[in-house]
Amino acid sequence: MEVGLCEAGESAEFDAKSFRRQLEDKLRGAAAAADAGYPENEGLVIDPETGIPSLKAFRADGQRPSAKRLEQEIKARMPERSLMGIVARTAYWVEWWRRFGPPSGNEPKLTDPLGRYVIVTFVKGTNMGPYEAARHIPSVSGHELSYVANKHFSIMLLNEAVSDLVNAHAHLDISQAWGDGTAVAADGTHMDTYLDNLLSETSVRYGKPGGIAYHHVSDTYIALFTHFIPCGVWEAVYIIEGLLKNTSEVQPTTVHADTQGQSFPVFALAHLLGFDLTPRIRNWKELTFYRPSKQTEYVHIDALFGEPGKNVIDFDLIETQFRHLMRVAVSVGEGAISSSTLLKRLRSGSRKNATYAAFREVGRVIRTVQLLRYLSDAPLRRRVTAATNKVESFNRFSQWIGFGNRGVIADNDPIEQEKAMKFNVLLTNAVIFHNALDIAEIVRQLLEEGWEIDPEDLAHISPYLTEHVNRFGEYSTHELGIQPEAYDPKLDVDFTPLREQELTAAGLDQAA
């Protein structure tokens, strides 16, 4: 099945009846599990009058003493690095710089492409202006930096270079401490632009003008894809778009998002494309739970669904619109129509349109299933919270790296604004990759000194380390000519227990 909806082991043709049965089974199963588990679910209380659920806030266990000791030791041993040196070494190792070049063969060749591309990536990634940067970097001019950035770098090539670093990071043993690449978190962070900017609108969410850097961050901490979008745009439409445009070897199947990802069309499209959308839920008052039929009632959780016989899924409509739903999903999957365009149309589309209504019904099913899972499964809530916290940490880390011009995007051209975000992510990913290598080298030293490294402790060590990175001063280019020794991706630590914990938790989720 092109859209990834067939269950494992199914050989029969997947048709409208199969799709309907699959959705009904999901909804009935999730509701039955939530109802049966409610008496033992100490973290959940459902108001019998309003039906509004409330969840008991969980306290994080806190960092284990052994993990804290390991983190302190790693931080103390991290070698001092310059940003320019980090970019140069990753360019030698991963050769992401080879992605760049002039659009045609008629352009004059650069005498030192690696050096120039490293400097431009450093300058643009930190958000420094080319002429300001030239005052601090010997042997380059602002005109030269501006020319190379405009003529040798494109959005497509920057995406490819970002994917090169993602792939290299995925092949490091140390990345297994943080995840297996199957989950990603998506969220936006506000970026200031000048007030006369074409994309500068006042954000309802952030309360100030500018744009939004919308990142998809892997469970291994590295960014898979980034958009730059205007504040007036509905962020949720980009949740799916970033997954489809990610061309790296890391292809997640689970996506976590903040409250922006709770709309019916987004849930429906994610399901049709084979993604498990599990957002973080904050405000339960505005959320509606839907019954599988008018006759269905529950012993403990019935108040969630409102009045008996109300809020019922129209499975007949879903079945009759099956071919239209599949056609749309295949079109999005093949790139004939972008997911963001489709979701915008579905959001503003006529309620009388049958295909729109069917999308809404599928979204109601999947969102209700996910809400029930979220209420029933405390470990799932912790994983979602951890994932969304991770992308928020990435936002802060990438802004720390993009310190130039006080964080304001100076360009008024939407394409150049998008490129500015891509440059920042390329530089940020280079630092993450380099930090991961430095952490792994320190762990090897500790193992040689007799330390016992618990993989669970290592999982708490974030590669978003900054204390050892020198951002300021005169930016020496001497490291551009020093080819580093090959790095070692291997690490003698058994990460199997971490994966077994995740598999056990996933099994519990599916059982629920």
Largest sheet: 7 strands, mixed
Question: What level of helicity do the residues show?
Answer: 40-55%
The separation of the N and C termini measures 25 Å
- The unreliable regions are 506-512
**Compute the gyration radius: what is it?**
25 Å
**Mean pLDDT value:** 88
Structural class: alpha/beta
Strands, total number: 11
* Percentage of β-strand residues: 5-15%
Brief summary:
It contains 17 helices and eleven strands.
Question: What tags apply to this protein structure?
Answer:
disordered C terminus; seven-stranded mixed β-sheet; alpha/beta; 512 residues; 47% helix
Structure explained in plain terms:
By secondary structure, this protein is α/β, with parallel strands linked by helices. It is built from 17 helices and eleven strands. Strands 4, 5, 6, 7, 8, 9 and 10 form a seven-stranded mixed β-sheet that branches. A two-stranded antiparallel sheet has the order 1-2. Strands 3-11 form a two-stranded parallel sheet. A hairpin with a 4-residue loop joins strand 6 and strand 7. The two termini are 25 Å apart.
